[in-house]
Amino acid sequence: MKDVHSHMLATVAIGAAVLAADNTPPAIDLQGYQAAEIILAVGIGGITFSGTNKIEFKLTHSDDDATYEAVTVADMLGLDAVGDGGIIKALTAEHAAAAVYRFGYKGGRRYLKLLADFSGTHGSGTPIAATVLKMKGADTPEVDQA
């Protein structure tokens, strides 16, 4: 087996929780890393999602942690399109089973933020968590996070 453990660091983008409203996204600093992968985990939907009652996951990036812009499809790997405002995943139909999604970031900016943007009525929350794996760091091996 190859060692990837020593070459990545996991950071919280959305803390594991049952959410029914927008999160406050932390800034993920990518300085010193050459690659990033966003891992999004979504549990069974607390509601039946629709075009009105939905969750859109919006990824933005910045050079200075002050001015953020939406990513485009040119900034991402694993996506055919990115929606307005940097939408990399939208829950607009029934989400009856837990699922994990991954998205590669190649945009080259220093900071990332991932927002779970809730629209409509969400009487029951949906379990959500997101991690950014920062990889190919300038300093290896990375510290253990166990």
Q: How would you summarize the topology of this molecule?
A:
Blueprint: E1 8-19, E2 28-29, E3 33-42, E4 54-62, E5 69-70, E6 76-77, E7 87-91, E8 99-105, E9 111-119, E10 126-137
Antiparallel strand pairs: 1-10, 2-9, 3-8, 3-10, 4-5, 4-7, 4-9, 6-8
What are the main properties of this structure?
146 residues, mainly beta, Jelly Rolls, 5-stranded antiparallel beta sheet, 10 strands, 0% helix, 48% strand, globular
Q: Quote the beta fraction.
A: over 45%
Number of helices: 0
- How many beta-strand elements? 10
Low-confidence stretches: none
End-to-end C-alpha gap: 20 Å
The major sheet is characterized as: 5 strands, antiparallel
Widest sheet: strand ordering: 1-10-3-8-6
Q: Which CATH architecture would you pick?
A: Sandwich
CATH topology: Jelly Rolls
Structure summarized in a few sentences:
With 146 residues, the chain is mostly beta strands. The chain has one domain: Sandwich (Jelly Rolls), CATH 2.60.120.
Description:
With 146 residues, this protein is mainly beta. It has one domain (9-137): Jelly Rolls, CATH 2.60.120. Helices cover 0% and strands 48% of the residues. The chain is built from no helices and 10 strands. The strands form 2 sheets. A 5-stranded antiparallel beta sheet has the order 1-10-3-8-6, with no helix packed on it. Strands 2, 4, 5, 7 and 9 form a 5-stranded antiparallel beta sheet that branches. It is globular and about 45 Å long.
